[in-house]
Amino acid sequence: MIEIRNLTRLYGRTAVVDDVSLTVDSGQLLVLVGTSGSGKTTLLRMINRLVEPSAGRVLIDGVDTATLPAHLLRRRIGYAIQGHGLFPHRTVAQNIATVPRLLGWPRAQIDARVDELLHLFQLDPAVFRDRMPHQLSGGQAQRVGVARALAAKPDLLLMDEPFGALDPLIRAKAQADLKEIQRRLGTTLILVTHDMAEAVALGDRIAVMDKGRLLQDDTPATILTDPATPFVRDLIGTSDRALRLLSLTPVAALATPGEAPGPAIAPDASGRDALAECLWSGRAALPVEGGGIVTLDTLRAQASQR
């Protein structure tokens, strides 16, 4: 569990982070979202003490991080940034092995962990181990950057705009891969973004910041349907709020008994996926794999929730 208690960072008389408190449960994925200058990156960097707080405390599993040597604290916390930040003169394997090597892991254990992570990120070790960063695509480099952050099996992973440099198609795949891997490993993850759509797609919870202050900390569904302030409402936008709400609901939760013609949709597909298929195929209902149907009327009702 991560506890942030009354955290503040001053630069001169300006509070870049202003008395922020929140808790992140073990295994949760929290997204910090806000416009440029909102304080979200500074808040993230105070967790691993790349920026020292002016006031307040950060506790990880009840331990005040201020009581730990900063370099030892950072070795326990994975950290991934926009543009991957790989060492250009080191191979993929050497990049991933950076923290385990600092921690003194045996060579055989390091090699096994590198191969395990490459397989996890669908990068064949025989092909990618000895490649240099300049030989990777943007998506491949980003996956290696996240693999490096996870190499020492941290309980906490911090990510600062990790997908900002990727094109939209690669970005969507990288987001889906990250969420699946985070669920599989059970890693607690705090991610910074300025993109509300990304926050909704990834977060178990979303914390919205503006001018250094925390405005709202809640589930994506609550943020979408009950924004706490006009700023949060404006950040969400209104043009595709219904589609974002549909993206949070799996088809299985919307299915009802019945039969319908045509190809079936997977029960773990989102309501947004089902709506797109209904509109594309001109069908008023879709069969669901394993039984039942999801109807266009049900999807519209779900999207119109307030």
UniProtKB/TrEMBL annotation:
Gene3D superfamilies: P-loop containing nucleotide triphosphate hydrolases
TM segment ranges: none
Protein origin, superkingdom: Bacteria
Domain ABC transporter, residue spans: 2-236
SMART domains: AAA
Keyword Nucleotide-binding: yes
A GO term, aspect molecular function: ATP binding
UniProt cross-references to InterPro entries, sorted A to Z: AAA+_ATPase, ABC_transporter-like_ATP-bd, ABC_transporter-like_CS, P-loop_NTPase
Region forming the signal peptide: none
Keyword vocabulary terms for this entry: ATP-binding, Nucleotide-binding, Transport
SUPFAM superfamilies per the UniProt record, alphabetical: P-loop containing nucleoside triphosphate hydrolases (SSF52540)
Family to which the UniProt record says this protein belongs: Belongs to the ABC transporter superfamily.
Protein name: ABC transporter ATP-binding protein
Organism: Paracoccus fontiphilus
